[in-house]
Description:
alpha/beta, 6-stranded parallel sheet, 12% strand
Amino acid sequence: MTVKELINKLAVSHSLTAQEYRFLLDERSKDDEEYLKELAVAARKDIYGSAVFVRGLIEIGNYCKNDCYYCGIRRSNRSCDRYRLLPEQITECAKQGYSLGFRTFVLQGGEDPFYSDGLLCDVIKEIKKLFPDCAVTLSLGERSRESFLALFEAGADRYLLRHETASKELYNKLHPEGMSFDNRMNCLKELRSIGYQVGAGFMVGSPYQTNAELALDLKFIEDFKPDMCGIGPFIPHKDTPFASFRAGTLKDTCFLLSVIRLIYPSILLPATTALGTIHPRGRELGILSGANVVMPNLSPVTVRKKYELYDNKICTGEESAECRSCLEMRMKSVGYEIVTDRGDIKK
Ligand code: 5AD
Ligand code: FES
């Protein structure tokens, strides 16, 4: 089969073998990429029209007990200026976000025992009490089943936990001993069984990654069917062991966004901040490849620079206090419109 025939097959059956995904990644031409993009955008338009959903991202803290080799807030990074937002500061961000029209709040942070179940449950309950029409999403790494359950019962609706890579071998090259691929996958299954809407995801172009591994990621998305899939280019951070590796590319990330859109047409796909960091119009180009979510930063401007997972992260300066209006304009410039509802997946 040619690449084009495989793309047609994917558009109809929403499934390929890992070998076929790999063939697609290895052999695609520029024409194939354009063709795939058209099908992906059409598939997304059928379901979501020209709507782009927004999530207000609140980076609650950058303490982390993990030591992932790629990440700027890893435990061993002594140059990282650490901070924690207190419950009142988190709800304050949500209040500001609500008045800006956000109806989903994503509380994201490193793995930090300071954020106990008790503390988080109180924050979640408070936000849900103030704003019952909003969804609360958590992105706080691996926790126990009991913890996931307690947070869900307190009112959390969604949980984002990127699987990072569907290859155990690659997982072990990106993480130190003590972090476990099996535990990560298990967390995703627990989250789903508890009733969360679940987000998975992976980095594109991370060190040692090959197309064979990306093919496994695609197969994983096809099998697990997460409600959301966050993908963005790997970008080196100067104070990590991966400082001297090259960043992932816009072209590869956009191609993968299109493939994932065809695998699971109704999936929520963010055009990530990392994509906006490697190219001035990266997020717009992500939307034009099939993405349908953007996640403007709602964190207090004073902490934004500190939540630096990779070098040169955008939206961290004084001028970016208003990511919401910036993205509104950016989406308009490519013919899309930001909508203000919870933006649940249409199944
Ligand atoms: N480049 C790109 N993405 C990164 N992440 C962490 N470090 C980097 C980096 N250097 C991503 C991981 C993590 C998410 C919060 O950010 O995939 O799950
Ligand atoms: Fe943050 Fe444009 S979206 S400054």
